[in-house]
């Protein structure tokens, strides 16, 4: 009888634990988009939303008129690798909501790491490492992980010359989104208002 009782308790405990892993985020705006990341994780739907929301933000910030995702990635990667991206102005209200949901996934982050707040031992990073398409980038990515040398700066160098691959390789794009964008948002003070850009009147002559 006691054995049966303990089995029942264990069953409910496991169910509760598995439920906690799956985020309760419901405000999906990109649910109609194709599945970009097929990772075996309870938060995979949220990860896909995060990727598409990130791409929408950089598209609107860096290529609002031309709507070129290639241009957006070119500008963002080049600046983000050298910590010069203006995250406060790039991020949209929806992406901030996604970020708040992502923060609940404690396994995804390492807030004590001086290299990056993205946990390189997380399931998502492992999924990315196994699915990057380009063999050279995949080898470099996994070599950095295996030697505990991974950082946005070290992987950013080969990435900066191969940013165009993010258009067809969404696992590589996911690395950009999570390590060069969402991980950086932890250090942004969102209580400060966005500074308005000074308007120039070209009709005024000196």
The stretches of 5 or more residues where confidence is low (pLDDT under 50) are 2-20, 197-202
By DSSP, the count of extended strands is: 0
State the helix count: 9
Q: Looking at the chains present, what oligomeric state does this protein adopt?
A: single chain
Compute the CA-based radius of gyration. 20 Å
* Alpha-beta content class: mainly alpha
Could you report the average pLDDT, rounded to the nearest whole number? 87
Tell me the series of helices and strands, N- to C-terminal.
Answer: HHHHHHHHH
| Alpha carbon gap, first and last residue | 93 Å
The share of residues in helices is: 40-55%
Shape: globular
Largest sheet: none
Strand content: under 5%
Please give a quick description of this structure.
With 206 residues, this protein is mainly α. 54% of the residues lie in helices and 0% in strands.
Question: Topology, pairings included?
Answer:
Layout: H1 2-21, H2 44-62, H3 69-80, H4 87-90, H5 93-103, H6 123-131, H7 135-146, H8 152-160, H9 170-185
Features of this protein?
single chain; 206 residues; mainly alpha; disordered N terminus
Task: Describe the overall structure.
It is a single chain. This protein is an all-alpha fold. The chain has a domain at 43-185. 54% of the residues lie in helices and 0% in strands. The protein is built from 9 helices and no strands. It has helices at residues 2-21, 44-62, 69-80, 87-90, 93-103, 123-131, 135-146, 152-160, 170-185. Helix 2 (44-62) packs across helix 9 (170-185). The longest helix has 20 residues, at 2-21. The protein is globular and about 40 Å long.
């Amino acid at each position: 009888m006691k054995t049966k009782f303990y089995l029942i308790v264990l069953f409910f405990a496991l169910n509760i634990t598995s439920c906690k892993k799956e985020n309760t985020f419901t405000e999906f705006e990109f649910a109609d988009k194709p599945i970009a990341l097929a990772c075996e994780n309870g938060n995979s739907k949220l990860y896909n939303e995060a990727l598409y929301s990130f791409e929408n933000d950089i598209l609107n910030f860096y290529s609002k008129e031309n709507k070129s995702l290639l241009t957006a990635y070119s500008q963002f990667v080049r600046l983000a690798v050298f910590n010069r991206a203006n995250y406060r102005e790039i991020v949209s209200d929806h992406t901030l909501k996604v970020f708040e949901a992502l923060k609940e996934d404690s396994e995804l982050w390492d807030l004590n790491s001086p290299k990056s707040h993205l946990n390189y031992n997380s399931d998502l990073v492992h999924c990315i490492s196994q699915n990057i398409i380009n063999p050279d980038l995949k080898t470099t990515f996994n070599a950095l992980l295996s030697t505990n040398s991974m950082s946005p700066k070290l992987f950013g160098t080969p990435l900066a010359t191969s940013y165009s691959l993010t258009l067809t390789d969404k696992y590589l794009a996911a690395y950009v989104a999570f390590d060069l964008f969402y991980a950086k948002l932890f250090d942004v003070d969102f209580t400060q208002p966005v500074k308005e850009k000074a308007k120039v009147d070209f009709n005024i002559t000196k």
